[in-house]
Each structure stands twice: as C-alpha cells, then as structure tokens.
Amino acid sequence: MPSERTLILVKPDGVQRGLIGPIIGRFEQSGLKIIGLKIMQMDEETAGRHYAEHVDRPFFSGLIEFITSGPIVAMCVSGPNAIAHCRRLMGATNPQDAAPGTIRGDYATDIGRNITHGSANEEDAAREVSLFFDESELLSYHRATGPWIIEP
Ligand code: IDP
Ligand code: MG
Predict the structure, then answer these.
(1) pLDDT 10s digit of each residue in the chain, 152 long?
(2) Which ligand is located closest to the Cα atom of residue 114?
(3) C-beta of 116 in contact with ligand 1 (< 6 A)
(4) Nearest to 103 by CA among 10, 6, 7
(5) Are the beta carbons of 42 and 48 closer than 8 angstroms?
(6) What separation in Å is there between the alpha carbon of 148 and the centre of ligand 1?
(7) Nearest-5° Cα angle at 12, 131 to 81
(8) C-alpha count within 13 angstroms, C-beta hemisphere, residue 64
C-alpha cells in the first residue's frame, strides 16, 4: 500500500467545542502518523485558496466566514492510503449521513459545522499540505511501535 500524506484540519467549531484532543486522538489511535501539527487562524486569502473549488457555490461566503472565524488546528498525517483512510475516519460531509463511529457521525449534526477537513485526493493533498506547512515543518521519524502497526 502506498504511503501518503494528507492535510487534516480541526475546524473552528471543533476548537471552540474543546474537541482538539479527541479529534487528534481519532487519527493517532488509528496508527496513522502525525508528521506536522499547528494551531493557527486562517486569513481570507488562505481560506479562498484552500476552498477555491467551491468559489461558485452558494455556501462559499458562509464557509469562508466560518473557517476564518477562529483558530483551527492543521495536521499533516501520513500512512498507508492516508488520504482515503482519513476520509473514512471523518465520515460523510453531511453529518446526517455520517455513520456512528466516524468523527462527523459522533460529534456533528450540521453540514456547515462538520468539525473536520480532510484532503479528497492526491492532487488536493499535495496542494493543501503545502498551503499550511513548509516542508521543513514536516518530520520524518520512526516509532518503536511501527512494526506493530504496519507489517514490515
Ligand atoms: P468535504 O469537506 O467532505 O471535502 P466538500 O464538498 O469539499 O466536503 O465541501 C467543503 C466544505 O464546505 C464541507 O466540509 C462543509 O463544511 C461545507 N459545505 C459543503 N456543502 C455545504 C452545504 O450545502 N451547506 C453548507 N456548507 C457546506
Ligand atoms: Mg472537499
């Protein structure tokens, strides 16, 4: 399985609700590796670039207002098929459709307050990781538990 890197955000609703720890924990407990982590507030320019694909959607201005409204936590996560795996851990975009046991299924009820972001595909992941992290902020390291998580 290819090792991938993906961008995960704890959105402002997750930070305000005191869910940074539980959400980071979901990814950490899965065995995926956190290789970059920061708390920050997005400016409008970064938000517009991050969500550029949605610029013509009716929810775009509300989305930009919300995502820039307070601190977020940005994380770069790596591991086997990390992009799709993180999307599965988060659940469907609309929490009404998200399965119990997923982050959105367990912590959210409204599509406009769905707690997390995760890159959708390889191209988005590369673009989004570089939007939030300088390459020098991403660590390469071994964990003693590595062979207990991924069969060598
Ligand atoms: P994703 O976050 O699961 O990749 P996208 O379709 O890329 O979902 O939408 C980006 C974000 O825009 C969603 O996570 C959600 O916060 C917001 N969004 C998407 N559709 C709607 C909508 O119909 N109303 C309000 N917000 C929406
Ligand atoms: Mg998306």
Answers:
(1) 889 999 999 999 999 999 999 999 999 999 999 999 999 999 999 999 999 999 999 999 999 999 999 999 999 999 999 999 999 999 999 999 999 999 999 999 999 999 999 999 999 999 999 999 999 999 999 999 999 999 99
(2) 1
(3) no
(4) 10
(5) no
(6) 35
(7) 50
(8) 18
How many other CB atoms are there within 10 angstroms of residue 105's CB atom?
A: 17
Task: Provide the annotated active-site residues.
Answer: 117
End-to-end CA distance of the chain: 12
The pLDDT value given to residue 116: 98
- Cα(119) to ligand 1 centroid in Å equals 12
Domains of the chain: 3-133 (3.30.70.141)
pLDDT at 2: 86
Quick one: tokens of 71? 């601190």
Dist CA 125 CA 149 (whole Å): 23
What's at 98, amino acid-wise? A
Query: For residue 26, what are its two tokens?
Result: 């979901």
Tell me if 61 sits within 8 A of 106, measured CB to CB. no
